[in-house]
Write the C-alpha cells for this entry.
Amino acid sequence: MSLETKLYTLLSTTSGVTDLVGTRSYPLTAPQDAEMPFIVYTRISSGREYSLDGYSSLENPRMQIDCYAQTYSAAKGLSEAVTTAMRGSSTFSVSWDDPRESFEEDETYRISIDFSVWNSE
C-alpha cells in the first residue's frame, strides 16, 4: 500500500480529524468548490533508502499537509488534530514535523506542516 493511501486512510478515519473535515482530504490540490475546512497533502521528496543490496523497501519522504480554514483558530485546531494523528499512526512513523502559518489572498488561513515520514512499502 502506498504512503499516500495510508495517509488518506489515517486522515479520513481518525476522529479528531474527521470531526473537523470529514473526508475532505485531497492529494496535491483541493477542488475549487471544496467546503472548508479541508486538508491537502503532497509528497515533497521521495527519500528512498538503499543498501549495498539495492532498494530496501524503506522510504523516508517529506510529506506536506496543508490545513485550510476560514479562521485562524479553526486552521490551528485542524493542524493540531493532524499532527496528533500523524504522530499516532500505526502504519508509518513520523520522526519530525515543521509547521508554518500563512494567510491567503482569498481570506483563507493555512497552516502547512512538513513531516518526515518513515514508511515500509
Summary: The mean pLDDT is 94. The first helix runs from residue 3 to 13. The longest strand covers residues 109-120.
